[in-house]
């Protein structure tokens, strides 16, 4: 079993996307990683705006930002090695978002923060969103990100509205989101070390090519998570 087939099987994506298409996307992203250089402006790698959080940790309106940006140096050891990895992850996310033609994409790593074990957002493209998703059963009850982070099984939602009407739980910070794909990042032993999350304002966006790009990103991004 090759790496692509093994990942798709472990993540619960077998039969949903052609392995050869995933492999092609992975190969392109590996070339992107190899060509990435650390930018001169390093602060942008560590800081990003986040929305205010409401009662129970729910997001406020997207345009209501917290007064201070999130600082990844709270959870990462700053230095050249980390900066290189963050630069690569940002390049990978940017290319994947463009090639998959989706509205939002982020890569998260499972780490211990001040509030406990959580998924920490390392790189993203799109509107500001929360930085940490607690890795707890309580939070997973309404968060796909946390659910995937705990189970290692991908979750695809073709129609967010229908999902909610049918009783499905959903953590929603942006009412424009109509479909979502959340995939695990798995190490060589099959352990969950992070996730990636894609969102779009169109229904049923995450099939075929967009899903192949996300799976390709999952295979490459896991190699560039900070230590």
TrEMBL record:
Q: Where is the GAF domain?
A: 87-218
Tell me the superkingdom of the source: Bacteria
Extract the InterPro entries matched here: GAF (IPR003018), GAF-like_dom_sf (IPR029016)
SUPFAM superfamilies attached to this UniProt entry: GAF domain-like
Supply the Pfam families for this chain.
Answer: GAF_2 (PF13185)
**Protein's recorded name:** GAF domain-containing protein
Protein source organism = Chitinimonas lacunae
